[in-house]
């Protein structure tokens, strides 16, 4: 039962605003820390529903042994949503079990009232900013078209409207082609289009990197996704490349690599070559990769921009005992090494670096260090100008960290709570000698410009420029 007391105490400390979830969890006894963290996070996800069930069942009024709301929350969580209460028999467990039937009944009634077909749909997955982030659905053009998807959603009763005011409304995104917006409460887990890979659930900001990289849809295209799992950006790149050329997708973690392989297979990405390796060990002069021209780098980061998930706190838990600052410094150092390694590929002329972090140290700080590195000296690489990087997206990089306002304008930021996305950061390095703005103009995005698809003559063997059509 001690484990439940610790978890309840953690919830009380969070309520009393005594620190962040991560900070408070770090103070728990190491023995049960991971397990307690999981219970706390899961209970927080379902807090609204569990509170209502506990109140409707009059649990706290009838059972004095259950001494606090938090204790009731964690115990009822395990009773209703896990494998039962994991503690030996005792008066507190007995008190909860006496109300088992009533608690289950109230839970089922609430589920019906909310129209939920699974427990997950009852989760309140983050802070209140998440309520203003639509459920983004990217139509996977490797397997279907927007028209086909729209017909499908119409048959499910959806029509064009404001998805934040109506559960039956959807809208097309104004910035990202093939992206649809739905109400945040809609679940697509059972949707046949989701199950068959025709649609992919991907936050809007996370669609920016592939768009900014905008590789050619051509048989000779050679692209690397250096840090690919679970594979959302990989499948997006593959779709933009119209499944042509070759897209090498590196993932160093074996388990995540399995997910990546499953994801690209399900999404019908036939031009992807998943590789279970550390990108840093890849020789840029290896004949397989020496002709690569585009690299996407979306490396591990603090995840501090993610507001609609609590789980990332758990993933990071126990990974590193150092202070938050030290952790960020380590991440920033690793991110810089990744960028510098990407710059060593002899033919690379476009590198997109992105994070889902809101910390300047992982974003503008890393960019500044990359620009001052040996790899960038003599102007070998510079930041692509604003008109190549989502030109009319209003939120740009933080000027105070960078050396010039132009550099800040080259960068894209998304602010959770203000941009209807998770917190995100996108940058794009281009090889100075080989870029010409005119060549790239009009392909960086549709924001504020007429959508265009530039076709090059087949005889030029350059393929089709893709990305923002
Ligand atoms: C932020 S996630 C990438 C998310 C992915 N781009 C997507 O959109 O689905 C970072 C991934 O990079 C992997 N990774 C970290 N360092 C790596 C390295 N040196 N080489 C290859 N993969 C790496 C991590 O295991 C993790 O799966």
TrEMBL record:
Q: Which GO terms describe its molecular function?
A: RNA binding; RNA methyltransferase activity
Instruction: Please report the name of this protein according to its UniProt entry.
Output: S-adenosyl-L-methionine-dependent methyltransferase
> PROSITE patterns given for it?
SAM_MT_RSMB_NOP
Assigned keywords, A-Z: Methyltransferase, RNA-binding, S-adenosyl-L-methionine, Transferase
The record places domain SAM-dependent MTase RsmB/NOP-type at 125-432
Residues of the active site are 356 (nucleophile)
The family assignment reads: Belongs to the class I-like SAM-binding methyltransferase superfamily. RsmB/NOP family.
Which top-rank group of organisms is this from?
Answer: Eukaryota
Catalytic activity, reaction form: a cytidine in 25S rRNA + S-adenosyl-L-methionine = a 5-methylcytidine in 25S rRNA + S-adenosyl-L-homocysteine + H(+)
Biased composition range(s): Basic residues: 451-460
Membrane-spanning regions, if any? none
Which residue ranges does the record annotate as region Disordered? 445-469
């Amino acid at each position: 039962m001690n484990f439940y007391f610790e978890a309840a105490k953690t919830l009380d400390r969070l309520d009393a605003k005594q620190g962040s979830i991560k900070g408070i969890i770090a103070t728990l006894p190491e023995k049960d820390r991971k397990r307690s963290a999981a219970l706390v996070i899961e209970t927080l996800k379902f807090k609204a529903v569990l509170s209502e069930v506990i109140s409707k069942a009059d649990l706290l009024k009838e059972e004095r042994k259950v001494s606090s709301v938090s204790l009731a929350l964690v115990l009822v969580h395990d009773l209703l949503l896990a494998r039962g209460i994991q503690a030996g028999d005792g008066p507190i467990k007995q008190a909860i079990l006496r109300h088992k039937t009533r608690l289950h009944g109230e839970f089922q009634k609430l589920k019906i009232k909310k129209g939920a077909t699974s427990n997950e749909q009852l989760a309140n997955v983050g802070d209140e900013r998440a309520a203003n982030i639509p459920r983004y659905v990217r139509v996977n053009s490797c397997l279907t078209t927007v028209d086909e998807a729209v017909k499908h959603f119409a048959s499910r009763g959806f029509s064009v409207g404001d998805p934040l005011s109506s559960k039956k409304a959807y809208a097309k995104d104004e910035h990202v082609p093939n992206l649809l917006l739905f109400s945040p409460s809609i679940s697509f887990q059972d949707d046949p289009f989701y199950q068959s890979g025709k649609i992919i659930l991907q936050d809007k900001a996370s669609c920016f990197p592939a768009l900014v990289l905008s590789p050619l849809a051509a048989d000779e295209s050679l692209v690397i996704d250096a840090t690919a799992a679970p594979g959302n950006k990989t499948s997006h790149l593959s779709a933009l490349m119209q499944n042509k050329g070759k897209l090498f997708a590196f993932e160093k973690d074996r388990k995540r690599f399995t997910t990546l392989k499953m994801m690209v297979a399900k999404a019908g990405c036939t031009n992807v070559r998943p590789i279970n390796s550390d990108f840093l060990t890849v020789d840029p002069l290896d004949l397989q990769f020496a002709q690569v021209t585009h690299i996407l780098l979306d490396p591990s980061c603090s995840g501090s921009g993610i507001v609609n998930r609590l789980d990332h706190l758990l993933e990071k838990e126990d990974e590193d005992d150092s202070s938050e600052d030290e952790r960020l410094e380590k991440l920033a150092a690793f991110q810089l090494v990744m960028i510098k390694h990407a710059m060593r590929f002899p033919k690379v002329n476009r590198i997109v670096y992105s994070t889902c972090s809101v910390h300047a140290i992982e974003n503008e700080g890393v960019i500044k260090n990359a620009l001052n590195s040996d790899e960038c000296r003599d102007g070998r690489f510079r930041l692509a100008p604003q008109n190549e990087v989502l030109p009319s997206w209003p939120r740009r990089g933080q000027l105070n960290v960078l050396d010039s306002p132009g550099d800040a304008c080259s960068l894209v930021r998304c602010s959770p709570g203000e941009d209807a996305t998770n917190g995100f950061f996108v940058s794009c390095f281009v090889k100075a000698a080989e870029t010409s703005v005119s060549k790239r103009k009009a392909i960086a995005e549709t924001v504020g410009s007429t959508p265009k698809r530039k076709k090059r003559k087949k005889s030029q063997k350059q393929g089709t420029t893709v990305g923002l059509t």
